[in-house]
Amino acid sequence: MENYQICRVAIAPLRKEPSDRSEIVSQLLFGDRVKVIEQTEKWWLVQNFDDGYEGWMDFKQLAKLGEAPYLDSHAYRYLAPAAVNNTLIAANGSAYYVPAGCTLPFYANGFCFLGEEKFEVKFEAWLPNRESIASEIEKTAKFFENAPYLWGGRTLFGIDCSGFVQTVFRLHGIQLKRDASQQAEQGELVDFLSGATVGDLAFFDNEEGKITHVGMMLGNDKIIHAAGKVRIDPIDGKGIYNAELGRYTHKLRIIKRFF
């Protein structure tokens, strides 16, 4: 089994079962590293290196990667920025339009590499800097405003609530888990809503008490989150209030701080 692979297309669906008809549970983006767990003729069960998430995907969307380059953390520092015109040019002259937050493997001097395949980077590569996160994370989050909600999505053209905050934090050098319930186990607890600041994550539960939603605080009275689309809504002790619907839509459970 070729254990170590890397995503070779801009966006690839990760599915719950090995079938084109199966539910999309997440996506791989260009440059994401995976470890192969199981193989069938067309479908491979893989685990994302960054967040540990597992899913089935079409093996043709992957390229072989040796163990040493797979584990070389220094080689995956640069990302595509929060912009809509991130273009890579392959050796044959064809273009790849890659999403914000995707990895530029082995980036150097305007080029990145998937194994032996070389890509010219036609934009300014982004190097996450945690020192500037407090002043920049709101701008990054608002880049995704009005992006449509898509279960399992991680890009401007379709994103879910946990994929949204994961991508925003990824662009600032913080790796979150994939699902809201997993993310709620990370970070440090903020005791009161009144003490929330920009960049804190608020988590919301359903009637059974399970965490099912997450959004990023914009102070202590507004939140940006993916619900129908990425939107900004007021929030208070009861939860998120949707003025268009005239009711509360999500019940607040906890608030966590990550920086």
Sheet-strand content, in percent, reads 35-45%
Q: Give the terminus-to-terminus CA distance.
A: 40 Å
Number of helices: 4
Major sheet strand order: 15-16-17-18-19-20
Order of helices and strands: EEEEEEEHEEEEHEEHHEEEEEEE
- Architecture of the largest domain, according to CATH? Alpha-Beta Complex
* Average residue pLDDT: 97
In short:
Residues 2-66 form the SH3b domain. By secondary structure, the chain is mainly β.
What does this 3D model show about the protein?
The protein is mostly beta strands. It has 2 domains: 4-121, SH3 type barrels, CATH 2.30.30; 130-257, endopeptidase domain like (from Nostoc punctiforme) (endopeptidase fold (from Nostoc punctiforme), Alpha-Beta Complex). Helix content is 12%, strand content 38%. It is built from 4 helices and 20 strands. The chain has helices spanning 67-71, 133-143, 161-170, 180-183, and strands at residues 4-7, 11-15, 24-29, 33-39, 43-48, 54-58, 62-64, 87-90, 95-97, 111-114, 117-121, 154-155, 158-159, 188-189, 201-205, 211-217, 222-227, 229-236, 239-242, 247-257. It has a 6-stranded antiparallel beta barrel with strand order 15-16-17-18-19-20. Strands 6-5-4-1-7 form a 5-stranded antiparallel β-sheet, with no helix packed on it. Strand 16 and strand 17 (222-227) form a beta hairpin. The protein is globular and about 55 Å long.
